[in-house]
Amino acid sequence: MAHIRLENLVKRFGKQTAVDSLSLEIKDKEFIALLGPSGCGKTTIMNMISGLLQPDSGKIYFDGIEVNDVPPGKRGVGFMFQNYAVFTHMTVYENISFGLEVQKIDRADIDRHVREVTKLLQIKHLLSMKASKLSINDMQKVALARSMITQPRIFLLDEPLSNLDAALRSIMRAELKRIQQELGQTTVYVTHDQVEAMSLANRIAVMNYAVLQQYDTPHNVYNFPKNLFVANFLGSPTINFFDGYYRNGEFRLKGFNKGRFILSRKNKAALESELTHEKIMLGIRPEHLKLKDTKTDMGEGLNAKVISYEPLGSKVIVYLHPDAEPNIIIKSSMEKGYKPRVGDLKYLEFTENHLYIFNKETTNLVKRFTL
Amino acid sequence: MASIKLKNVTKSFNQTTAINNLSLEIKDGEFFCVLGPPGAGKTTLLRLIVGLDTPDNGEIAIGDEVVNDLHPSQRDIAMIFQNLALYPDKSVFDNIAFPLRKLDLREEEINKKVVDVSKQLKIAWLLEKLPSQLSGGERQRVAIGRAIIRQPKAYLMDEPLSNLDALLRLEMRVSLKQLQENLKETFIYVTHDQVEALSMGDRIAVLNEGALQQVGKPEEIYLKPNNIFVGTILGSPPMNFLKCNFTGESNKVIFIHEAFALMSSKKDFINEMKAKMLTGSVILGIRPEDIKIHMEKNSDTVIESKIYVTEPLGNETIVDVKLGKDIIKVIADADFSGQIGQKIWLEISSSNLHLFDEKNHDCIYHITEKGLLQTF
Description:
The complex is a heterodimer. By secondary structure, chain A is an alpha+beta fold. Chain A has two domains: 229 residues, P-loop containing nucleotide triphosphate hydrolases (Rossmann fold), CATH 3.40.50.300; 131 residues, CATH 2.40.50.140. Chain A contains nine helices and 22 strands. Chain A has a seven-stranded antiparallel beta sheet. The longest helix of chain A has 18 residues. The relative contact order of chain A is 0.11. In chain B, the strands form four sheets. In chain B, strands 21-20-14-11-12-13-22 form a seven-stranded antiparallel beta sheet. In chain B, strands 6-7-8-3-9-10 form a six-stranded mixed beta sheet, sandwiched between helices. Chain B has ten helices and 22 strands. Chain B is α+β, with helices and mostly antiparallel strands. In chain B, 26% of the residues lie in helices and 35% in strands. In chain B, helix 3 packs across helix 4 and helix 3 runs parallel beside helix 5. The chains are: A alpha+beta, B alpha+beta.
């Protein structure tokens, strides 16, 4: 059990700033994800929490007590890395019990813990097997069991699922979330995979170039992204951005011969009270951008040509060019079974409530209308 | 331009069979994806086609010519690897032009070809740069450019996008597909990523442990998987599988799971099931999108269950549902708001169910007819 507070953490490697003045609070029992592209500083943050790295400046507190000078082994932190170090010459049982044996815990207790944790992870039947004989999936579970069993007050996971195949990853995701809720350990989960961050975490800290972009619930990060980067990083396929400007109740969008979107009077007033700059980027998620064969009411000239489509089983992703610009790609998520013809002209349909309006210069979100 | 045929090809390394009696026909101008987990034999298959390995048995033909004994250089096939193997000290221009240097071409001709190819790949403005100055996606395009410029008979690609980040991968998928449509050449694309296979392949071959599981159009293999393996490797999340007991009576068949039961009284179906179902139990396969969640018991045919955990993804929510001892995944709307442990009711789409043999995991029956099998 632990509450973590990071205060103005800075870490540089040579001239490179890996983490820039980061402040973050993680509540007791909370599951947070550090999400960002490679090189954004997320692993460095984790290494500073564990004590493997010292910050250049700033403080780290566990339950209100500064731990900057506490060595890693005394911080009560459990790890699991992407490159799990499982001892292949030992059995599964020996691998898992290892962490407790060095703590000189009673053998019967160790045995009970091993059985509990392996039952939870569904590897109980493998206990006497040599680790070298395990599949990659099972090896990952052994690594997880080994860090879980010591019951650290803080659990740090660095891309723990990235070596698993897709089917098992999806099962393990649900299991991890369930296990964390049952054990209640404060968990920091590092990933570049937005699906993992969205599905697992109570809150997501989105990082880019060493700087925290947004720290909020999955719902808010997805639906109210602070800036273009966050909007673009979450969601698959990625959000559509249209470059353009706003004037007098309507958006004029580039890429179309004549692309206009007209706002209702109510939202016009709401937007104008907050918009200081007429150059905007309009964001629309693929699931909110629908394709019609006939003209729609809200827009005018929002026409696009189908260039390809992907039947992904449960849905179909359609890719289009706006009618005047073959270098822009528009993505639309349509129902299973939708089958456009390549070259077809479609009318784009979306509603005001699904628009994300960004200031083009600052890249910050200006407005998202809500019902 | 060429078709590629494999006939009963087998390849072993020491005791391990990497490719097991594989027959495939890849059509001229086709975008053909080979999908399988690590170790399925995908890379071996490519190496056999390109000539880096020779088969122990069987025949490989490119066009009408059997190439078993041809050296890789004589097969005229381009291969693009996961690590792109660009020359770090050569400019983009020289990297792309490299295959032409061995030919006896005039400098102007080389120039024109490189410019043409780089325009096609939208990297014309990068020709003077070194690979180290390029982004991941740009480097990828250079590697493709170097392959295209030779105008080979076919292109083989081994997970070429796996080192790119998610956003770039999505863009490259679309541009690779477009490129192939413009070139109209034969592409064989190996991947472990079902999204890549579904989105780019004209047809997909699913491979597991060296053996072919199914070949078909993306929709076909998604909607009618030959076996449990294919049902699992395609779809995100994958298909759910539930073991059911089977009872056949004279006028009905019943499938019983711990949490529900399904029945049919259609005569043809009953007869077919009785003929095929020898073991007394069967695996029922249901895709996560073919189950609907109700927060209240709104009819007698819905199945009572409990929320195990929820996974909000932004555009949808995956709900893990505890159904008896099993846990299944269901796709629900983005705004789904249920709590762990909460009781819910499931409605199974009766027109998209699959029955698999418990022992060999092969599909016994794809139920596409609405109402053929119903909960009761």
